[in-house]
Design goal:
The structure is a homotetramer. By secondary structure, chain A is of the alpha/beta class. Chain A has 2 domains: 244 residues, Type I PLP-dependent aspartate aminotransferase-like (Major domain) (Aspartate Aminotransferase, domain 2), CATH 3.40.640; 132 residues, Aspartate Aminotransferase, domain 1. Chain A contains 13 helices and 13 strands. In chain A, the strands form 4 sheets. In chain A, strands 2-10-9-8-5-3-4 form a 7-stranded mixed sheet, with helices on both faces. Chain A is globular. The N and C termini of chain A lie far apart (55 Å). At the A-D interface, loops of A face loops of D.
């Protein structure tokens, strides 16, 4: 096979492109995970990562993935047979539900058509019905990576409060943290679950749980079995900057660097940047005359756009063509969306020109695949990006 | 603080020094974990890693640690309340026992004084007593990292066979694999547990379970709860080179490189090299007049030597002095050995001169700390290494 | 200053983006430049680099730059006061002339307006006039990086032959080698001069001279003073893979990797790829209604396009805007083109989407700078790239 | 060939081991060498490097080597046929003389037996004899890498002053800078010459000249031909942080990092550290009963020790054995010392344990090669290092 030249365009909604600075921070000799140098690193990242979750309580870091963090969230807080309320935003909500079932929980799963975000009203209704508080936790996905919908966590909080329900509030922030505004303490979230390979711009290999004091208290008596993902031993060891077993030291170096980078840019700038990408991509898609899965603009995701293939065209063949011809990786359809869609990720360490390149790859591939569409989507996105840049020019000129 | 110049000497029994080639193999752009390039990598490492375990059946790779792999070994094969037989070789045997308890298993723990390896006869006796086969698994540590003893897995296998007992045979190979000969299929091990950061020369972040067909069959009905560490979904996804959730891609690149390096050197050469280190270190210690924890030469470890501090001297202050003065990290005493010992790791990507440097750091520190000892330990190790090198000269000359 | 996110677009005609593989090959411990491992590396790259120049004679590698290689070409072959014939293709031809003057040579400089390549007829005429062979060398630039014109070296060779003139034929291949077809032996070039940071995809730091047997013979008696750039000591040491003084070992590792990559892709594929970029960029520029410096299509460069700014618009302010707004680096106008043009480099390790991103950055910047142009240049380039990709589809389908 | 495990011991007097931080600083995307980001880097390193030479005037950085810097020192300041006074400290003094001859200078070479440093008295005598000031420059090597002697530049300065002679004072600091105290301005040196791969801890590829105002003034009219190594164009471009041709950008990143590291440690600590290494190595050699080339303790080098092989033993075979058996690279004998000596480099980013490891490799190899020696050299070095470390303990305790 002949070499593919130039830079690959990784336009999936995670893993996201790891910045050179983060890669280099990780590319160093491993150190003693029980020595003083490591203790400094451990205390540093354990404290700093809180600024990303916007919490002052507890964040635990596991050498795992977001899936592991899901397990940690449930296994530390619930008893076998406990009921949890979940909302079917899409594939990842579905997987979390499966995990809950595997762990022996009863799941009340509010079904949905995968085309919108969480219906806070439905949550509230369920909780109001639950007079005896059988529901122990409400678990929702902040940004549903499979469909490109972002739900409103503040509204879910309000729904729980309105129902005056004591359930724990758990949020999957895997593809939202450090890309979409997330406010752990302000929104009264009890457990947030995240991974390293999305907004945090790291390779995969870390799972995070941000834990409220309430959830910590509940975890003292929770009866689900847990060992690797247990919080109690983590909490003890973390106090000195250490971990109960060997942590993924390389990724922790990378994490320290990534957090620095996020703050150098400014979290608000990061969030604004992702919104800009989302808008540009949707304008291109609209121009092409294709439909996106997210039906309601209030749920459109700033980090990933899921595009329906026109009837009779398979998403997987299309993605393969784009990869073969233009070296751009697009996201696949998952479970019930398999082969029906493709996803453009616009998350992490990227920029306007990279997004335009990805859109150009998609538009040219639409042509090569003879999928009906109207040319000019890239131009539409360029017009939007240019006007956005002009705004900053005007602002700077004032 | 002023900069410390030169290379750090990481002489703990893991994490071990990561070779430049492995670090560079990991230092690359992250790829789509669902794309064709990843599938090739996945299939490649899943197959190649079997050559290190010397198995033809199944090896599962988790983005976790050896501790996670322990959980995986138990949770996939056992029912709540099952009895397991374990042997107290030291701290890590003790931790595995704790994990079993946390997971709801009953542990029959053969106590020992942490100064020798597994007593296969004691295992056999226990199994013979267990007429109704209440014991579902025998779990032992191949190399006990806390004490520096290596047990004989072939003898444990023989003990189980002699007792004609159907228990699963589980082995912790965390600090032995790829440093001490381990033969999964030949020794009839059902589940071997490992991590990435020792003989495999990788940063921490991967956990492995090598699984026999018998254990796979048992896992179909095992009732302990498991999700992240479950084998069933791993098996399904692994067939195509994929994983049920985002794997630690960077480490998988490194794993491929590390396996290449091990085979370039030759596994038998790797094992011989570690034996040589062990002998050299013990000669130095003996010359100093210090005592090692491992009491019986048949259990002496090729990868780590645990040295008792003379009465009245704390191990931790000594280690701190060696680190401060000579930039060498030594292993700490764990739980009941805390502050009573120090450990010299001699495992992984290292060589004779590095071991001698470490010994020189120890010997000079013994002097500075005014710990009674006889000078000349380094010289004793040099004499041994030189004669070993001479042997290869003689052999080459023939 | 806030962090700039995502990948920089380095669209200058060199240094070009260094591929990850090359960067990693260089990122390793330095070795003894007089040891056996280095000798192997030295012999390997000295031999392999010949395949890129398409020569079987001599290639010398200096820890320097293309400018150093220029000096080496002249200083090893000429006497003080010798006359050389040069052709003013642009800024780099002009700099080479200046160097010749600094070294004490007399330069017959065929002037030109910087808008076309070498006029082989003019060369021939000069040589025919030179009855007593005062001209000792004909020095021309293969690809003039400042203007974006590529000259035809085979025609210059024919011109020299037609005039039956014994002058040495010297060619600056700095921005052509490994991007535009260059045939050292077939074209009878006596000295080719190159640097590492263009088609060879390395960081700057190496200068190359490819030398014919005729030039080597001439160099034995050439009287210009030389030491660092002398060929005689290089030739002696190179025989064993060594160098007369410490070579730039890191870059030699990178060179070995870069040559492998070029051959993996296939040199003909590399050349075709650059032609495709050139055509796409020119279509975009033509659509915008802007003029390029190269006036004659037979001289259009596959590696860089130089675009005239419309009257009243400064090139430097425009480049600054593109850099500030879209993080794309464009090439500046040099000497008499200062501020009058901007250059788009399309050379080295790049691909269609990256070129389109660069064009999008330029087109949006034209809009923001209110420079008169017609939108749609990116679309024109996309149409061309798509049709080119389609061609390969059709071809593959046959 | 089987893999060699562990870290190589590069114990030659340069290139020296490049620290991880420097390698990582260099391992990044190449940038536009004419853009604003580069200008900042250029200005930064051009200014910062002065602190290492201890000068406030000019330092020029060439993409070359120390040899190139030699050429630059001579070619910018002298006329053809000028006489220079040089002192034969060893091989590198000899090579500099050869270069001067190649460049058309007349060399008055004070011969010596390569076993001591510069005899300042002999310099003074020569200058006093030179009534008509035919000698235009005095060129001496600060640390003679081939023999392990360090000369006293302050005394040479005094000799020139005592003779009241206007000759320029040029110093080769290639293997001394950033390892042995060097004071450009205080000692009135006119041109100092250096390379990147020794005390500066970088890979090879940069040559430096530190230039006094007097030398700059002289260079305006100096008539030797120069182009690549000319100071005039460098001076012009450097003012804005740029270079007249493409600089070795990667190495400049590394240089910035290396300078930071040197200052973090403190130059005086760096110098003290190297003195400690020299003393330890000489104690080992003395214990072995071997002779070093440097005859007078006032010239013993802190950065390299050259050891005479006992009669009848070849240095090259010995070095090969040490490399093959223990993966330690030792320095070779050069020109008239070829095969008669071996050199232990103890320069750059290293530490006590690494030096001891190297000594252990040498001592074991002496045994394997059956070279007469008394065992215990490593022990002698350990005793010295321990007492030195104890001194810092005592000091810290006060």
């Amino acid at each position: 096979m002949s070499r593919v030249s130039g830079r690959h365009f990784l336009q999936i909604p995670g893993p996201t492109p790891v910045p050179e600075r983060v890669l280099r921070a990780m590319d160093k000799a491993v150190i003693d995970h029980r020595g003083p140098e490591f203790a400094k690193l451990g205390l540093h990242v354990l404290e700093r990562v809180k600024t990303i979750f916007k919490t002052k309580t507890h964040v635990f870091i596991f050498p795992a993935s977001g899936t592991g963090a899901w397990e940690s969230s449930l296994a530390n807080t619930l008893d076998p047979g406990d009921k949890v309320l979940m909302f079917e935003t899409g594939h990842f909500a579905f997987l979390w539900k499966n995990m809950a079932s595997r762990l022996g929980l009863e799941v009340d799963f509010i079904e949905s058509d995968w085309r919108s975000g969480v219906d806070a009203g439905a949550i509230e209704a369920k909780l109001r019905e639950d007079k005896d508080h059988a529901i122990k936790a409400v678990c929702v996905v902040h940004n549903e990576t499979s469909t490109g919908t972002t739900s409103h966590m503040d509204q879910v909080r309000k729904a729980i409060d309105a129902a005056n329900h004591p359930a724990l509030f758990m949020v999957d922030t895997v593809s939202s943290l450090a890309a979409i505004d997330y406010r752990h303490d302000e929104w009264g979230v009890d457990v947030a679950v995240c991974g390293s390979q999305k907004g945090l711009m790291l390779p995969p290999g870390l799972g995070f749980t941000a834990v409220s004091d309430k959830a910590m208290a509940v975890s003292r008596d929770a009866k689900l079995r847990r060992a690797f993902f247990a919080w109690d031993e983590m909490e003890t060891h973390n106090k000195a900057g250490f971990f109960p077993y060997t942590p993924a030291t390389s990724l922790l170096y990378g994490l320290a660097e990534a957090i620095d980078m996020l703050h150098e840019e400014g979290l608000d700038n990061v969030f604004a940047r992702h919104k800009r990408y989302g808008e540009a991509v949707r304008r291109a898609v609209a121009h092409w005359g294709l439909e996106i899965v997210s039906r309601d603009s209030k749920f459109h995701s700033p980090v990933v756009t899921t595009i329906l293939m026109p009837e009779g065209n398979g998403g997987d063949a299309f993605r393969k063509l784009a990869l073969d011809k233009f070296d751009v990786s697009l996201g696949a359809g998952l479970s019930k969306l398999a082969d029906k869609i493709f996803r453009i990720g616009h998350i992490g360490d990227t920029n306007d020109l990279t997004i335009l390149a990805a859109l150009a790859g998609v538009e040219m591939s639409l042509g090569l695949a003879e999928i009906p569409h109207k040319k000019g989507g890239v131009q539409a996105a360029m017009d939007y990006f240019a006007s956005a840049a002009n705004g900053t020019m005007a602002a700077a000129a004032e």
